[in-house]
Amino acid sequence: QVVLVSGHLDSWDVGQGAMDDGGGVFISWEALSLIKDLGLRPKRTLRLVLWVGEEQGGIGAEQYYQLHKENISNFDIVMESDEGTFKPSGLGFTGSAKARDIVKEIMTLLQPINVTDVYDDADGTDINYWMRDGVPGASLRDYLSKYFWFHHSQGDTMTVQDPNQMNLCAAVWTVVSYVIADMEEMLPR
């Protein structure tokens, strides 16, 4: 059984892609690194996927889906961060009402950093195939007020990234992915 965390490598032709979507890649990598460094071993596999070709129609995600869809019942949740890594506000979620209730309970663990909201509908080109077929999906939600200042521009460089805000995003990704991976049962479909 798999909990998939992801971001995509798609620097745009005029920028470095540090925010879109290097930030999503970083927090996904960091989540798994933190879990490993803490010596935690969840019941399910945590799988990091760094998608390619998202801007070219999601061809990397489609290929991955085609290669793994026969095991779709083993995918517990698919998570993608692709809206920057500014100060997080919560999690977008697509799934059953019972699964949403569980995710809301998990998000209460993030009260100390004031990131507890669960929004309707996860977003993510790279996880849409899975969600369409009934796998629960999650996407990081953050304060997007500056996102389109840098999106697909020459300004999308490392200077846009705030290490403190990225750490908060990584904390959300770490807690959610680990708790779901370590639950007794998979999220209800």
From TrEMBL:
Family: Belongs to the peptidase M28 family.
Keyword terms, alphabetized: Carboxypeptidase, Endoplasmic reticulum, Glycoprotein, Golgi apparatus, Hydrolase, Lysosome, Metal-binding, Metalloprotease, Protease, Secreted, Signal, Zinc, Zymogen
Any one GO biological process: thyroid hormone generation
Listed GO MF terms: carboxypeptidase activity; metal ion binding; metallodipeptidase activity
One GO cellular component term: endoplasmic reticulum
PANTHER family attached to this UniProt entry: CARBOXYPEPTIDASE Q, PROTEASE FAMILY M28 PLASMA GLUTAMATE CARBOXYPEPTIDASE-RELATED
Organism: Chloroceryle aenea
Pfam family, one: Peptidase_M28
Compartment(s) of residence: Endoplasmic reticulum; Golgi apparatus; Lysosome; Secreted
InterPro entries xref list: CPQ (IPR039866), Peptidase_M28 (IPR007484)
Domain Peptidase M28: 1-173
Assembly behavior: Homodimer. The monomeric form is inactive while the homodimer is active.
Name by which UniProt lists this protein: Carboxypeptidase Q
Record lineage: Eukaryota, Metazoa, Chordata, Craniata, Vertebrata
